[in-house]
Design goal:
The chain has 17 helices and 23 strands. The strands form 7 sheets. It has a 7-stranded mixed sheet. The protein is globular and about 70 Å long. It is α+β, with helices and mostly antiparallel strands. The structure holds adenosine-5'-diphosphate. Adenosine-5'-diphosphate (ADP) binds next to α11 and α12. Adenosine-5'-diphosphate is lined by residues 265-266, 309-310, 312-313, 325-326, 328-329, 414-416, 418-419.
Length: 500
């Protein structure tokens, strides 16, 4: 019997999930486990790779069991994962050499400062599209080789494997037979050259990383090997893989240059598809691989907002002026007038395009009749204004592409995308339609799309775009003058909190 379903493993920072999708892209069963976090010192964050592997197996079995299907119904497995998190393990035994160093971990801040002081950033940026920052994997791996006794010697002898979480899971799923990654995860390491689409010898030298540690880089929809029968009772091919934000881009079927996917959770991650040319950002946004099919790369500009849903959490848990996040929608709709009250949620500084880490938040434009509704509305509006800031930066970068490019559609997901009032205001503020999909589990869906593509469940990108289904489209309806006036008010509020 040919498989009709795809199993997506979504290994995130705080939990591991498996979702079984049918060929129409509908989720039929889900299982999830919270992931243990380790904070050995201030600024350090670790995960136990064995926890990750155990949880992945448990949720795969759980999802299959809940579906009531036989394992033979699964045509393929797709993997998506928290990006940049570094794992180092023994090639012979598969045992981790230490805990995984998580993307949030800042232990390599001093090393990054030294590399920048040595003038390395320009070369790194030109080759990888990224910045020198502890966030990315290379300095985490360098730290392991430096601090674990014998690690460098063993690495040089070819006895160790490095990988991000995708590679780690694949290695275990295939019983240690395959040490590979995909181009999107590779593009987040600081070791991958966007132009050559391969590991870069100069970058390996810069970070003192032996080449033998690295996984082989494959397309996002590719043959990644066979998951052992020990997982689900039958061998199942792994045919799709992508980092979480890139998987969401695929799950949102953002296959045309000019399409943006934006995920609104605690923070917000937006990726603009810029097509075949990896143009570097003039606003310190990142250039990254969006996806690679048949060896042909498509690139994206990525921008993030530190505080999105977190501002609503603060209203709920800090100020205690709302009882739950969804109630923000009704309050915003009830607020008086079109505002004048602005919240700049620069709780941890301002990100793109301001890059002011010392800025702090503010509420401006308060009057005697400002109430809870107006403050809540200002918090929601801030999400839209920050997206507009990102989009203006993306627009300016996209202008530098040969032929130029205009961002034209925003596809949204994440917890905040449920808020209709916010989605309408977002469309109004951006002046482009905002599309919310029927399936909001876009990260897992993207992994399923990729795996299904290579397994033959979908004939190509067009078929994936057809499998993506709209829940609701929000058209911009604010007139241009009002839109400009509201945004000017935001920019004025931002000016008040900037330190530089
Ligand atoms: P994460 O994956 O970062 O944990 P989620 O995608 O689960 O985030 O979204 C949760 C965030 O979205 C929370 O910060 C919450 O305050 C916010 N949120 C959830 N529902 C709504 C809503 N209806 N309106 C506004 N904010 C919401």
């Amino acid at each position: 019997m040919a498989g009709t379903h795809v199993l997506a493993i979504d290994q995130g920072t705080t939990s591991t999930r498996a979702i079984l999708f049918d060929a129409a892209g509908q989720p039929v069963a889900t299982a999830q486990r919270e992931l243990r976090q380790f904070y050995p010192q201030a600024g350090w964050v670790e995960h136990d790779p064995e926890d990750i592997w155990r949880d992945a197996q448990v949720v795969c079995r759980g999802a299959l069991e809940r579906s009531g299907l036989d394992a033979a119904a699964i045509a393929a497995i797709g993997i998506t994962n928290q990006r940049e998190t570094a794992v180092l393990w023994d090639r012979a035994t598969g045992a981790p050499v230490m805990n995984a160093i998580v993307w949030q971990d800042r232990r390599t801040a001093a090393l990054c400062r030294d590399l920048k002081a040595d003038g390395a950033e320009e070369m790194v940026r030109a080759r990888t599209g990224l910045l020198i920052d502890p966030y990315f994997s290379a300095t985490k791996l360098a730290w392991m080789l430096e601090h674990l006794p014998g690690a460098r010697t063993r690495a040089e002898r070819g006895e160790l494997c490095f990988g991000t979480v995708d590679s780690w899971l694949l290695y275990r799923l295939t019983g240690g037979r395959v040490h590979a990654t995909d181009a999107s995860n590779a593009s987040r390491t600081l070791l991958f050259n966007l132009q050559t689409q391969d590991w870069d010898g100069d970058l390996l030298d810069l970070f003192a990383i032996p080449q033998s540690l690295l996984p082989e880089v494959r397309d996002n929809a590719a043959d990644f090997g066979i998951a052992d029968a020990s997982l689900l009772g039958r061998p199942i091919p792994v045919t799709g893989m992508a980092g979480d934000q890139q998987a969401a881009t695929v799950g949102q079927a953002c296959f045309e240059p000019g399409m943006i996917k934006s995920t609104y959770g605690t923070g917000c991650f937006a990726l603009l598809n810029i097509g075949a040319e990896p143009v570097l950002s003039g606003h310190r946004l990142l250039t990254t691989l969006a996806y690679r099919f048949d060896g042909v790369p498509t690139f994206a500009i990525e921008g993030s907002i530190f505080v999105a849903g977190a501002a609503i959490q603060w209203l709920r848990d800090g100020l205690r002026i709302i009882s739950d996040a969804p109630s923000s929608e009704r309050l915003a709709a009830d607020a008086r007038g079109t505002g004048g009250v602005y919240m700049v949620p620069a709780f941890t500084g301002l990100g793109a395009p301001y890059w002011d880490p010392d800025a702090r938040g503010a509420l401006t434009g308060l009057t005697r009749d400002t109430g809870v509704a107006e403050v809540v509305r200002a918090a929601l509006e801030a999400v839209a204004y920050q997206t507009r800031d990102l989009m203006e930066a993306m627009r300016a970068d996209a202008d530098c592409l040969s032929g130029g490019l205009t961002p034209h559609t925003l596809r949204v997901d994440g917890g905040m995308a449920e808020n209709d009032w916010l989605m309408q205001f977002l469309a109004d503020m951006l002046g482009v339609p905002v599309e919310r999909p029927a399936v909001t589990e876009t990260t897992a869906l993207g992994a399923a799309f990729l795996a299904g593509l290579h397994a033959g469940l979908y004939s190509g990108r067009t078929a994936l775009a057809e499998a993506w289904r709209l829940d609701r489209r929000f058209e911009p309806r604010l007139d241009e003058r009002e839109r400009a006036a509201l945004y000017a008010g935001w920019q004025d509020a931002v000016r008040r909190v900037r330190t530089g």
